[in-house]
Each structure stands twice: as C-alpha cells, then as structure tokens.
C-alpha cells in the first residue's frame, strides 16, 4: 500500500507542477497562430509588394473546377506583383485590423494592402458569431505586437469553454431583420440548411424554394449603419495603414444578387445596395480606394450555393483577381 | 456536469472524495453515504435543476413499490395482489419513460398513418432517464422474485443516483451495489484503488477527448451531407462513427469505473474489445456488457418462460424480441427499431449457425461481424431512415461519383501533394490526415489492449507513472470544448 500511496502523492505533485508549465507550452506551441507566423516570416525575410487579406472567398473552389487557383493567384498573375496572402474562412474586418498591426514589428512592409469586404461578415452569421471572432488568435496577435499576454482571457477561452458558452448565447439570440419571422440564430440556421450539393443541379434548387430565400435574407438583409462595429473597424484599419504609409485597396466581394432578387424580390436588391453604400461611404471617408464588385457576376459564377452565396468558380475568381489587379496597378502607379 | 470538464476534475471530484473519506474517518458513516447522495444529486442537478423532482419522485415511487412487494404477506388478507403491485410499479416506470422519450414518436407516426395533425410535445428528454428507469425496473422485478434483502432508503437512493453511473451507465444491479455501500472496509482510504481508479479514469478521458472527438467532425460533416457522399466518403464516415461511438461510450464507462473505484466501489466493466469479436454473439458479450446482462435476465429469460414449452426455435424468437425491445429502448425512431431488429436477427442466425456446427475461417468471421456492426451503426447515428439509406447507399456505390474530375485525380501532382484525399473527401472537408487517422484508429483498436486489460497489469512503477502523467495532461489540455457523450441521448 505504501508504494501506491507514494505513487499517488508523486502523481499529484507532478501534475501540480507540470500542468502550469504545459499550459504555457501549449500557448507558445499549439495555440500559435499560423497566419501570424506566415505574415511575420514573410515580411521579415522576403518582402512582398502586397498583403492580400481575405476570407473563404479567396481560396474556396467549386467541386468541378479544373483550375483551382485562388483569387490571390489570379491577382498575382495579372498584376505581376508579389503577394503575401492572409486569408481564412471566417475572417472579417475584425481580424484584418489585428493582422495589419503585425506590420509594426516586421522588418519590411508591403506597398499595398488589399482588403476584401464580404457583406455577410456584417450579418449575424458573420463576425457576430463567437467562433468568427477567433479569440485565441486575437490573444496571440496582441501578445506578439504589444508583449502583453492576457492570461485571464486565455484561460477562459482555451480551457473554460468561454467561446462555446458565447456560442450558445448567440444561437439563442433573436434575429429580426430582413422581414424574417422572429426566430433565433439557431432556428434560422436549421431552417435554411440544405444537405446536398445543388451547384450543378438547378432542378434541386426548386426543391429548396423555402430555404434559399431564408438564407439570402439572413446573410445580407441586415441594416448596416455607419457606426456599425465592423464599419468602424474598416476605418480603423485604413487609418492605421495610412499612418504606416501603406495605401489600402478595398473591394466589395461579389454576391449572388441575381439569385437573391429571384428568391426574395426587389427588397433584397434595395437593402443590399443601401448596405453597400454605407460601407463604400465609410471607406471613402477614410481616404481609401474602393471597388464595388458586389453585383457584377451572374449566378452561374457562384458555387456552394447550399449555404453561402459568395464562393466563386474559376471564372468568378479570375474575374475578381484580374479586376483587383488592374485597380492595384493603377493605385500603385498613381497613388489614387 | 460532464466527466470531461474542469469543474468536475478539479473541483467536484476532489471535494467529493475528500468529504467522503473525512466523514468516514470521524466515523460518521451514514453522513458519508448521505454526502455521496448529495453529491450525486448535485451532479445531476448541475445539468438542469428542473428535472430533480422527477428523479426524486421516481426513486420514492420505486422504493415504495419495492417495499410493498418485499413486505407483502400472503398469510394476510390483502386488498391488492402482489402481481398488481408489481404491475403498477412496472407500468408507472414505463409511462414515465414513454411520456418523455416516445410520446413525440407515437404522435408523429399516428399523424402519418391517420392523416391527422396533432402537435408534437417537444419534451426535453431528462438526462439519464433510460438508465435510471431500467435500473429501477430491474430492482422491482427482483423485489417481486424475492431476491431483495437490502432496504434502506439512503442506500437505495444512492444505488440509483450514484453519480459515476447515473447518466449513462454502466447499468448496475442492486445485489452487487448495495452491499458495497455498507461494507466497512470500503469506508477507508485505499491508495491502491485511488491509483488504479485514477489510471482508468484518465485512460477513459483520453479515449473520449482525444480519440473519440478526433472523429466527431468527419462524422458530423458526413451525415450532414449524406445525400452527396461518394463511395470513399461513405466508408470513411461509417468507420469513423464506429470508432467514435466506441471510444466515446467506452471512455465514459472507463471514467465511471475509475471514479467508482476512487470510492472503493467496484462498478462493472461495459466493454471488452468488442471490435475484435469474430461473431455477433461474442460482440454482445463484449459491447455494453451490463445492458446485455440486463437484456438476458429481464427480457430474454421472461419472454422464454412465457412460452408453454421451451424449444430452440422459441429461444430464437425470444432473442429477436428481446433485441427488438432493446432497439426501442435505445431511441424513439425507426432507425433504432431497425437496428435492434437486425441485431436480433443476426443473433438468432448466429445461434442457429452454432447449432448446425457450421464453420468459417477466423478472418472471414471477424470481417463479417465487423462489417455488420459497422453498417448497423449507421442506423444508430442517422436522423432517419432516409439519411441512413443515403450513407449506406454511398457505401455500396450508389452515391455521388467518386471523383468529379477524373483526369485531375489520377495526375501525379494530385497524388504527390496528397491532393487526392481532398478530392475524395470533399464533403467531409477531409485530407490525407483524415485517412491516416482512420487507419491508425482501426489498427489501435484491434491491436492494443483495452482498459480492462491495462488496469489488470497496473503497477505503481515509473513506466505507469510517466504514461499516466502524459495521457492525463494531454487529455486535460484537449478538454476545453463542449462535447457531450453520445450515449447521453439515451
């Protein structure tokens, strides 16, 4: 029995000592943000002309795409510029504002930052979802920039399920915009869910006639005001980069407005136009260049239609990449 | 409260263990039992306090019925017969279970058949109701059969609510548990049990949060996109779920056994490498073993006894009916009924196979058993027969084409950059890692010792110390997300 007693006491002591050490190692090893690493490594070692920020619209491809290059690849090809891409599903102006701060600690800086704005980021399913705030990435980036580590928040989010609890609160939050019936986020997400790939089966879209309009309303028909948190973040990012001497090229990512109007009606186009104007005015107010590609593309250029309405096929990605590349070349050559 | 939560591991468990042994040390043994009961009710109430009256009411109801059965004196003139008392108890429990678990299923099917539009009740299923109800049904049967001797309310309440087993088993038998709560030797700290209990607990935790949860995302993606799965995805999803379910449930059961041992209470094991089974009879001797015992004792045997004479054919019928009922117990849905029926049919066939002394090579026998279990678990997970048929259909090539762009799939670049897996597993958002994790999981399951075997060879030496420290730290670090146990839905 003595050996078991010693074993247990030693185990408890060892656990008490190693657990905090492992928590620290966990932060510096497992929780390190790969995108921040990539940005820092790139601009410390091999300078690039452009920092291309973005979300899933940059890289996601259709199932039948032969050419799987992303928007940034087409941008590179058309512009001839060197590019560092920091793009991940769920990224929004909230994250862009943080990543650009890393440029204060890099040896070199880009000549231009390209910042796509996805209208859906401004909805309940976008950056207002707790999972899309990437709290651990935020903690890591802030630590790298300022040297201050927010231990309390880290423990809350890493170990005590803070993000999940916020997710539960978010899912139960009532949504009342876009002429949606009052429902919670969870109810709407369940109500618009489509489990099959309808990209190449237009007849199946008819089957989901009730779900698709719900999705268009939920993702785009919120009312964006000039003092919206994300609109302010866009302005903040532009001003920050201006202070570093880096111009910003903003573009509104294409939305499947044709299908939106088809399923919802003209109120969809009206609301989207008003929202786009609010964002464009904010960008111009801060002195950045903005290109509006939101309504440029027909429905056939879009993929993943079952649950998002901004992912593009090869032709769509090429269109965006080339247009943004032309605007970037003009901006860099003229400063406007 | 979940076993895999920080509040359980760092607060609830140590406080409960300390309180239990401190009270026993100062010879307040009844208080220590009450302390365990309080802790168990606290554990249950942490999830939702509203269902506490239900649990307490169920305990009091069954305890009263049990007492009436045990005290029944046939020499006295009685208002009601013993059989009536027992029937009341049994029906009461079945009504409770039926009301919470099956009412919406009954209403929905009635609407479907009778073309009516009655509203569903949408009652939230109280956690653990299936387990604590059948535990008490077994108690009542034993009271009726005259097998019950222990009748203290405190011990009975603790037997039903003991927190390691309350929410998802193992299903306990009172004659195994009641004496343990009273045994004086169990009131003293046993460092050997604390060590082995911790060892088993953290093995279970590792199985749950590291292994089971590894497969959960692929499974969720797969069943969510069931209509679009291809052949490869169908198999990856079904095999992933087979592993997820095993490690989730056996991990929970291990944790329950480990925690029980910390209180010197020996809970029965529930799993013994079921996927190594070479026939379905053996599978059910190794999978959810306490449920198998319950089915044999309280379903199969009474059904068999109900026949006028026992023949081999009737025993097969009894097996099928028992498993059919087991399917219903698992869930209110046609998929569960079909799952139970298929296993009942398979068991009956296996018994017939044995009777005829037919043989099959061992590898073929293992493969047949594993593939059958794997396929039927699709029914277990699917939301309905439609979804199940989609996944099963994909597994036999009736789903989407395997590769959308054939020439790209066979290009050297696709293979050398492991791009082939992203193409093959598009709906699952998978990659080459998905494939290797699955292969690794299968090899690990079939080649390694199980928790029961590991616990039997435990020694307080450096090897076990390092192993236990490593898995416990790694499991604790991976705990930070909400993940429920799959068997909580029962």
Describe the structure.
The complex is a heterodimer of chains A (336) and B (490). By secondary structure, chain A is α/β, with parallel strands linked by helices. Chain A is built from 15 helices and seven strands. Chain A has helices at 2-30, 34-45, 56-59, 71-79, 93-99, 135-146, 151-158, 162-171, 185-191, 202-207, 211-220, 229-243, 257-264, 266-285, 314-334; strands at 50-54, 83-87, 112-117, 174-175, 183-184, 248-252, 289-292. In chain A, the strands form two sheets. Chain A has a five-stranded parallel β-sheet, with helices on both faces. A two-stranded antiparallel sheet of chain A has the order 4-5. In chain A, a hairpin with a 7-residue loop joins β4 and β5. In chain A, α4 packs across α15 and α12 (229-243) packs parallel to α14. Chain A is globular and about 80 Å long. The mean pLDDT of chain A is 90. Chain B starts with 5 loop residues before the first helix and ends in a 13-residue tail after the last helix. Chain B is globular, with a radius of gyration of 24 Å. In chain B, α13 (312-330) runs antiparallel to α14 (334-355) and α14 packs antiparallel against α15. Chain B is mostly helical and 490 residues long. The chains are: A alpha/beta (336), B mainly alpha (490). At the A-B interface, α1 of A face α9 and α22 of B.
List the helices and strands and how they pair.
The complex is a heterodimer of chains A (336) and B (490).
Chain A: H1 2-30, H2 34-45, E1 50-54, H3 56-59, H4 71-79, E2 83-87, H5 93-99, E3 112-117, H6 135-146, H7 151-158, H8 162-171, E4 174-175, E5 183-184, H9 185-191, H10 202-207, H11 211-220, H12 229-243, E6 248-252, H13 257-264, H14 266-285, E7 289-292, H15 314-334
Parallel strand pairs in A: 1-2, 1-3, 3-6, 6-7
Antiparallel strand pairs in A: 4-5
Chain B: H1 6-25, H2 29-45, H3 52-71, H4 82-114, H5 129-144, H6 153-161, H7 163-166, H8 174-182, H9 191-224, H10 231-262, H11 280-286, H12 289-306, H13 312-330, H14 334-355, H15 362-381, H16 385-395, H17 406-409, H18 412-416, H19 419-424, H20 432-447, H21 451-456, H22 462-477
């Amino acid at each position: 029995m003595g050996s078991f007693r010693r074993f247990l006491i030693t185990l408890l002591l060892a656990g008490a000592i190693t657990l905090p050490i492992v928590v620290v190692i966990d932060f510096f090893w497992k929780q390190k943000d790969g995108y921040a690493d990539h940005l820092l490594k790139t601009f410390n070692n091999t300078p690039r002309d452009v920092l291309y920020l973005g979300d899933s619209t940059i890289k996601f491809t259709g199932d039948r795409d032969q050419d799987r290059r992303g928007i940034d690849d087409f941008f590179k090809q058309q512009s001839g510029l060197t590019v560092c891409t920091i793009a991940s599903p769920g990224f929004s102006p909230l994250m862009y504002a943080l990543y650009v701060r890393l440029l204060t600690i890099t040896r070199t800086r880009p000549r231009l930052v390209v910042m796509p704005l996805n209208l859906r980021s401004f909805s309940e399913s976008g950056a207002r979802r707790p999972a899309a705030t990437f709290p651990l990435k935020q903690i890591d980036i802030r630590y790298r920039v300022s040297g201050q580590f927010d231990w309390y928040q880290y423990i809350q989010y890493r170990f005590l399920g803070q993000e999940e609890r916020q997710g539960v609160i978010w899912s139960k939050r009532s949504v009342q915009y876009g002429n949606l019936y009052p429902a919670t986020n969870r109810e709407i997400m369940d109500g618009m869910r489509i489990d099959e790939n309808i990209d190449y089966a237009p007849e199946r879209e008819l089957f989901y006639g009730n779900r698709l309009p719900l999705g268009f309303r939920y993702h785009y028909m919120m009312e964006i005001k000039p003092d919206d948190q994300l609109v302010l973040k866009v302005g903040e990012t532009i001003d920050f980069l201006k202070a570093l001497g880096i111009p910003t090229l903003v573009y509104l990512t294409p939305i499947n407005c044709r299908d939106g109007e088809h399923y919802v009606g003209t109120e969809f186009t009206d609301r989207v136009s008003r929202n786009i104007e609010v964002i464009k005015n904010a960008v111009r107010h801060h002195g950045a260049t903005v290109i509006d590609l939101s309504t440029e593309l027909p429905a056939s250029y879009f993929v993943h239609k079952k649950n998002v309405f901004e992912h593009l096929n090869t032709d769509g990605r090429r269109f965006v990449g080339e247009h943004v590349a032309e605007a970037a070349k003009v901006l860099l050559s003229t400063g406007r | 409260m979940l076993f895999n939560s920080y509040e359980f591991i760092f607060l609830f468990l140590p406080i409960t263990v300390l309180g239990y042994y401190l009270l026993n040390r100062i010879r307040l043994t009844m208080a220590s039992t009450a302390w365990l009961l309080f802790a168990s009710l606290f554990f249950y109430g942490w999830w939702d306090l509203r269902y506490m009256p239900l649990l307490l009411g169920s305990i009091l109801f069954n305890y009263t019925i049990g007492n009436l059965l045990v005290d029944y004196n046939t020499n006295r003139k009685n208002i009601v017969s013993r059989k009536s008392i027992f029937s009341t108890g049994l029906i009461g429990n079945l009504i409770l279970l039926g009301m919470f678990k099956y009412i919406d299923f009954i209403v929905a099917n009635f609407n479907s058949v009778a073309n009516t539009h009655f509203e569903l009740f949408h009652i939230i299923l109280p956690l653990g109701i299936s387990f604590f109800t059948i535990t008490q049904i077994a108690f009542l049967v034993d009271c009726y059969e005259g097998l019950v001797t222990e009748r203290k309310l405190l011990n009975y309440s603790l037997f039903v609510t003991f927190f390691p087993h309350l929410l998802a088993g193992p299903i306990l038998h009172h004659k195994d548990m009641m004496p343990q709560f009273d045994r004086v030797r169990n009131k003293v700290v046993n460092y050997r049990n604390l060590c082995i209990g911790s060892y088993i607990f953290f093995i279970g935790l590792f199985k749950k949060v590291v292994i089971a949860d590894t497969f959960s995302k692929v499974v969720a993606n797969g069943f969510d996109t069931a209509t679009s799965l291809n052949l490869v995805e169908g198999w990856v999803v079904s095999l992933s779920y087979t592993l997820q379910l095993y490690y989730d449930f056996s991990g929970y059961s291990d944790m329950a056994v480990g925690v029980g041992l910390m209180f010197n209470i020996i809970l029965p094991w529930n799993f013994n490498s079921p996927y190594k089974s070479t026939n379905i009879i053996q599978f059910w001797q190794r999978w959810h073993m306490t449920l198998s015992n319950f089915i044999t004792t309280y379903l199969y045997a009474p059904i068999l006894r109900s026949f006028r004479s026992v023949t081999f054919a009737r025993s097969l019928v009894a097996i099928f009916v028992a498993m059919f009922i087991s399917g219903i117990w698992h869930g209110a849905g046609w998929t569960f009924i079909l799952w139970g029926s298929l296993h009942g049919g398979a068991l009956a066939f296996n018994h017939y196979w044995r009777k005829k002394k037919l043989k099959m090579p061992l590898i073929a026998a293992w493969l047949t058993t594993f593939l059958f279990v794997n396929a039927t678990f699709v029914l277990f997970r699917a939301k309905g027969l439609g979804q199940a048929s989609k996944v099963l259909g994909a597994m036999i090539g009736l789903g989407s084409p395997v590769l959308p762009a054939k020439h790209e799939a066979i290009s050297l670049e696709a293979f050398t950059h492991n791009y082939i897996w992203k193409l093959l597993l598009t709906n699952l958002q998978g990659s080459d890692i998905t494939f290797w994790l699955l292969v690794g999981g299968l090899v690990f399951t079939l080649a390694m010792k199980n928790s029961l075997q590991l616990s039997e060879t435990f020694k307080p030496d450096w090897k076990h110390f390092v192993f236990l420290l490593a898995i416990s730290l790694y499991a604790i670090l991976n705990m930070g997300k909400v993940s429920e146990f799959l068997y909580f839905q029962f």
